Amino acid sequence: MKKWLSFLAIPLLSLVLAACGSDAGASEESEEGDKITIGYFPNINHVAGMVAETQDLYTETLPDGTEVEYQYFPDGSSFMTAIETGDIQGGLVGPGPAMNHFTSGAKINVVAAGSTGGTVIMAREGAGVDSPEDLAGKTFVSPRVGCTHDVQFETMMKEEYGLTSDRIGGEMKHVTGKPATYASLFETGNVDVATVPEPWASSIEAQGSGEVLVDTPDVAYGETLPAAVFVTSQKLVDEDPELVESIVGAHKKATDFINENPEEAKQIAIDKIKDITDQELSKEVIDNAWERINFTYDVQEEHLQEFANSSYDLEFLKEKPDLTGLVDTSFIEE
């Protein structure tokens, strides 16, 4: 557990480094090829990061002698701060944080996808919620305000059921919390509905504290939106495209490994999630979650733009976003 908790200090450290003007030093280190650092989250949409680390795939594509390190992040904001300060050179993050930071002026590029799918809307047993129409006056939880899963849920509720959150004067009460805690929130009755990334939806199912209200294909952008994207800085793309090509090459190898060796990849996910979070997920949970996810590195800018437009419509963004220049597919093209 100490390993996981240590990464909670990353946002503060990043702010200190930014104030000290450390961006140039971090970039110089990556340009020399001496060391790169890759980041990802301990959830199932980021299995490509776990596989690349466990199989040591970056050493196969990077210049000889390059040292590879990994950092694990609790949320998208701290990840994006680390990208912007140069503390990490690339890695996997949800599309929401990537787009939000880009529209705020961050010089970043999405160079690949990590996966699609994996968002599930769960209802607490005994909450009196049999369909989304029942959510007026109910409380829902998402990982963060305006995160990928939050926008997917609120887009669906607004467009299909005419319900919005109290954040914009609506009838649904919104709270935030870490997905790993949702089962306990259901058990205590503190929330009625959760917008849940896998594997935590399958974990809730297995524990019996909640049931599926809306499955992945029927959530807004459920099968088209990347659930994770691979991000690096525009500076690195401009100044060292060969290094970025090597980094993306390892990510592509990891994705191919997942699709060609699903059982081995599942075990890697179980082991790494336990290693990082001290939570052990059963094979049953991982098997169930796997069915809701497509592991791919292909990414299309129009899908991200549609999602960003929804973020604006829901008032998560103050200005209508233009994502032109965010996506660079040159590194995944054959």
Concise synopsis of the structure shown:
It contains 15 helices and 11 strands. The chain has helices at 2-6, 10-19, 23-32, 47-54, 58-61, 76-85, 95-103, 148-161, 182-188, 200-207, 234-239, 241-260, 262-277, 283-290, 301-313; strands spanning 35-40, 67-72, 90-93, 108-117, 119-124, 139-142, 173-176, 193-197, 210-214, 226-233, 293-294. It is found in: Cell inner membrane; Periplasm.
CATH topology of the largest domain: D-Maltodextrin-Binding Protein, domain 2
Q: Walk across the major sheet and give the strand order.
A: 2-1-3-10-4-11
Content of β-strand: 15-25%
The number of distinct β-strands equals 11
Largest sheet: 6 strands, mixed
Identify low-pLDDT runs.
1-33
Please give the share of residues in helix: 40-55%
Family: Belongs to the bacterial solute-binding protein SsuA/TauA family.
Pfam family, one: NMT1_2
Subcellular location: Cell inner membrane; Periplasm
Main location: membrane
Describe this structure in words.
With 334 residues, this protein is of the alpha/beta class. The chain has two domains: 2-117 and 225-331, Periplasmic binding protein-like II (D-Maltodextrin-Binding Protein, domain 2, 3-Layer(aba) Sandwich), CATH 3.40.190.10; 119-218, D-Maltodextrin-Binding Protein, domain 2 (3-Layer(aba) Sandwich). It has 15 helices and eleven strands. It has helices at residues 2-6, 10-19, 23-32, 47-54, 58-61, 76-85, 95-103, 148-161, 182-188, 200-207, 234-239, 241-260, 262-277, 283-290, 301-313, and strands at residues 35-40, 67-72, 90-93, 108-117, 119-124, 139-142, 173-176, 193-197, 210-214, 226-233, 293-294. The strands form two sheets. It has a six-stranded mixed beta sheet with strand order 2-1-3-10-4-11, sandwiched between helices. Helix 4 (47-54) packs across helix 13. The longest helix is centred in the last third of the chain and has 20 residues, at 241-260. The chain is globular and about 60 Å long. 49% of the residues are buried. Keywords: Cell inner membrane, Cell membrane, Membrane, Signal, Transport. Pfam families: NMT1_2. It is found in: Cell inner membrane; Periplasm. One of its GO terms (molecular function) is ATPase-coupled transmembrane transporter activity. Belongs to the bacterial solute-binding protein SsuA/TauA family.
